[in-house]
Amino acid sequence: MSTRQDAWTRDEDLLLAEMVIRYIREGKTQMKAFEDVGKKLSRTPQACGFRWNANLRKQYKQAIELAKKDRKKFNDHFTVSQSSNDHMKGQGLKTFDELIAQLEKLKVEYVPSQGQRDRRSIDEVEQLKERLTDYEQCVERINKLTQEVLEKHNS
């Protein structure tokens, strides 16, 4: 039995899954993920969407749920307050740079009331820094895998 010329490879499936899950986590649409990964793989967004829904989505159910929870937690905890700079008013933080800037701002603005430190806030900031490091490592891994897939695809 011969393999179809347009058959999906394991690397293409991995790239599609990682991008869709990342887009879910970042609050972007799956359709946008299909469009972007389709460009990288020279496939149509419809082909990517069909592959995702027909073959991959069920395998990544737990990762999808975690991405949705992360997106919700991120949006709940880091929506910029009305007292923020005008260019960020009413928007959620959307990039690591914005998250880092907000954490730095909180660090500078933090003033303990009556000499008592709010241990919970400090612990939350530390936890967020750890999560940020984890996300940065994930982004690096995704970028590396994406580059590998693109190099294989272009050769």
In short, what is this structure?
The protein has 155 residues and is mainly alpha-helical. It has 6 helices and no strands.
Topology, pairings included?
Layout: H1 10-25, H2 30-41, H3 45-56, H4 61-77, H5 96-109, H6 119-154
Helix pairs in contact: 1-2, 1-4, 1-6, 2-3
Keywords: DNA-binding
GO molecular function, one term: DNA binding
Protein name: DNA-binding protein
Structure description:
Residues 1-56 form the Myb-like domain. Residues 1-60 form the HTH myb-type domain. The structure is a single chain. By secondary structure, this protein is mainly α. The chain folds into 2 domains: 10-80; 95-154. It has 6 helices and no strands. Helix 1 runs parallel beside helix 4 (61-77), helix 1 (10-25) packs antiparallel against helix 6 and helix 2 packs across helix 3.
Q: In percent, how much strand structure appears in the residues?
A: under 5%
Query: What is the makeup of the main sheet?
Result: none
The unreliable regions are: 80-90
- Bin the helical content: 55-70%
Structural class: mainly alpha
Number of strands: 0
The number of helical runs is: 6
Number of individual domains: 2
CA distance, first residue to last residue: 25 Å
Overall average pLDDT: 78
Our Rg estimate from Cα atoms comes to 20 Å
Estimate the global geometry from the Cα principal axes: elongated
Written as H for each helix and E for each strand, in order along the chain, the element string is: HHHHHH
